[in-house]
User: Which sequence fits this backbone?
């Protein structure tokens, strides 16, 4: 049973979300404050976190940043009344995985939770298979039709990230922060150079393509999702 931590200071909404998740087979625990959520996470592992942004004392941004510093893989889903692009950009740059605006449709929430948990399991497996392409994260090896494609560690990590979240757009800034480090003085154009290299090296792979989302960044599209 997947364990989900719900961090929401609205008592009524917190109880409703937890009750609905429990009814659909999840083990849900509710917290009204970020500090209480930290305690929960120290005491037992969770598979996914749902968090509001606008909370007293420690808001969702600070909470997500702290969680991501402690755990790089746990999915974080924001559910918030904030529908502005600045909040969304800040959340994704801090490392959240999805974003929903209140009021939410619970059926949609279940779909998003299921997708996030599937992706998290792929990441934990350390192996990603896309058609004839196999990415082994333990060895940083990419095999296409059982032949190794030489890649650098950064090239491998970028490709693994994109293919772990097919059809999800990552901005240049997001990729730069994750694979060059926050505060890197390297130009964002370096991301374009790496994407070009990946396209060249995997040009013979027909199972996916890396698509430019103009004005935003890049995403991987599987051949059956085009």
Assistant:
């Amino acid at each position: 049973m997947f364990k989900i931590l719900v961090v929401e200071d609205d008592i009524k909404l917190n109880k409703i979300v937890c009750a609905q998740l429990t009814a659909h087979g999840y083990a849900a625990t509710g917290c009204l404050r970020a500090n209480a959520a930290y305690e929960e996470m120290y005491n037992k592992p969770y598979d996914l976190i749902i968090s509001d942004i606008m909370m007293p004392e420690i808001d969702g941004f600070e909470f997500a940043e702290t969680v991501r510093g402690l755990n790089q893989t746990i999915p974080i889903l924001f559910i918030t009344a904030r529908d502005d692009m600045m909040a969304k950009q800040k959340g994704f740059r801090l490392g959240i995985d999805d974003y929903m605006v209140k009021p939410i449709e619970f059926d949609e929430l279940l779909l998003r939770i299921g997708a996030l948990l599937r992706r998290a399991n792929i990441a934990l497996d350390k192996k990603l298979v896309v058609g004839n392409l196999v990415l082994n994260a333990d060895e940083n090896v990419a095999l296409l039709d059982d032949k190794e494609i030489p890649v650098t560690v950064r090239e491998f990590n970028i490709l693994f990230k994109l293919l772990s979240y097919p059809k999800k757009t990552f901005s240049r800034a997001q990729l730069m922060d994750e694979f060059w480090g926050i505060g890197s003085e390297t130009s964002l154009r370096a991301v374009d150079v790496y994407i070009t290299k990946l396209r060249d090296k995997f040009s013979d792979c027909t199972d996916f393509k890396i698509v430019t989302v103009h004005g935003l960044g890049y995403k991987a599209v599987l051949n059956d999702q085009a």
